[in-house]
Amino acid sequence: MCGAELTSLPEGVQRVAAVLQSHGHPHAPVMLEDAARTAQQAADALGVALGQIAKSIIFRRLTDDAAVLVVTSGDRRVDQKKVEALVGPLGRADAAFVKAATGFSIGGVAPVAHAGPVVTLMDEDLFRFDDIWAAAGHPHAVFQLTPNQLCFMTGVNESDVVEWPLADMPAGARKVLGDRSASVQAAGKSSMSPCVSVCRMDDKVDACLGCLRTRDELTAWSTMDEDAKFAVWNSIDQRLQARMA
Predict the structure, then answer these.
(1) Nearest Cα to 123, choosing from 176, 195, 66, 51?
(2) pLDDT tens digit string along 87-131?
(3) How many CA atoms lie within 13 A of 59 on its CB side?
(4) pLDDT of 13-52, one tens digit each?
(5) Which residue pairs from 17-20 have beta carbons closer than 8 angstroms and sit at least 24 positions apart in sequence?
(6) What is the sign of the dihedral through the CA atoms of 75, 79, 82 and 86?
(7) Is the pTM here over 0.90, yes or no?
(8) For residue 101, what is the DSSP state?
């Protein structure tokens, strides 16, 4: 990209392009005709899988007001508890905080070229793909790269920072569990077991693929009182709803 082309771009995109050039990156930012403020909009515009979009989520660390950037696959949801286990307690980052910390507006936050220091984490699930696309400092701008190139340019290694995808849960189990959860919530008490006869553990998140209970919840279930069981049902309902959102 020559100097004239660079100066014709929005300021945020110029910053990203300059960083890419400094790394000898082979792909310059691309300006899309329509805004791609969400991962789905970007995937649709580029004709790629939703998971190939490296979306940037900003949190505010409560202990020091540092910006924490989590770069994750577009088809995944950030698990805040996992992120907090790595960097400490987090709070919500509003639009003003995001702009001040990164120099970018929400919908165009790039994984590089930030206005100040940013704590960065990268979703290991991005490595499912050979090529991915990230925002380039503007809602209309994106750039192509590989997961390894993202690691190199951000200076971080991949981490487990996302929720377990509901797509891995058998559809029949999902319906049965959803119906039972609705009945329990309506009754206001634990009136049945969450078990749906799909007893397979997902080792990555240490939870059952059928009932969404953690290993600790499964182990303790038989000794729990009704209040504790209802609390587990509430957790199951939250996990189910979060993964269906």
Answers:
(1) 51
(2) 999 999 999 999 999 999 999 999 999 999 999 999 998 998 999
(3) 23
(4) 999 999 999 999 999 999 999 888 889 899 999 999 989 9
(5) 17/136, 18/113, 19/112, 19/113, 19/153, 20/112, 20/143, 20/153
(6) positive
(7) no
(8) H
